[in-house]
Amino acid sequence: MKSISVPIGKKVYFASDNHLGAPTQEQSLPREKKFVAWLDEVKEDAAAIFLLGDLFDFWFEYKTVVPKGFTRTLGKLAEITDSGIPIFYFVGNHDLWMNGYFENELNIPVYHTPQQFKINSTTFFIGHGDGLGPGDKGYKRMKKLFTNRMAQWCFRWLHPDMGVKLAQYFSVNNKLLSGEEDIHFLGENKEWLVQYAKRKLKEKHCDYFVFGHRHLPLEITLSATSSYINLGDWISYYTYGVFDGTKLSLETYVH
User: Fold this and answer.
1) What is the CATH number of the domain that holds 44?
2) pTM of the predicted structure, to 2 decimals
3) Each residue of 182-233: pLDDT tens digit?
4) How many Å is the Cα radius of gyration of the chain?
5) For the chain, what is the domain count?
6) Domain membership of residue 200 as a residue range
7) 208 contacts 226 by C-beta, under 8 angstroms
């Protein structure tokens, strides 16, 4: 379990599901500028920042090429890590194919599976949330293809102009991939990430289970001492999590 100490007056921030580039670069630019403005504000008192995936609507790293765009965001992330504030990134279902660029260029560790963190004396179970729990069966089958090394090797042989354009088309139009088929609250008993968190809680206590992916800002009590938090998104809600050293809460960015 990784440990982070939050000094008095500092906070830890969590955000997820920006889907920059969707449905077009031009249409996502105002959202990107808003996110960068948020990063500018939180860096003033941030002890750490967690980004829980789908920052981009599509991201694929060729050996010497990454997708065009997102200069404002990437530059701001580099500025923050250069200042000494750690950023932790968890890949989502739209950016599964990270392979060293964030680590080498931005000094941001990238996680492909959920991780446990201890922040001060509070325990966190953190991940994007895709493919977890009893549901999401269609996506689980698709993810096996996405993470297949042979499939990725074949995709790399496409010229980036063709590969990225093709992937962006499916990313925007495939409801199974985008999650648009269930962006409404299903009820606690049908929320598969809630069910997943409850199952993990039986194995080991955790104060907070923090996920993205669902695009819904949710705060659900699992027990007297444990909660499930879904961060929402930066498309409709502009919500984020903030931990003040004692308590995690959801807030909305107004800019």
Assistant:
1) 3.60.21.10
2) 0.89
3) 567 777 877 889 999 999 999 999 999 999 999 999 999 999 999 999 999 9
4) 18
5) 1
6) 8-252
7) yes
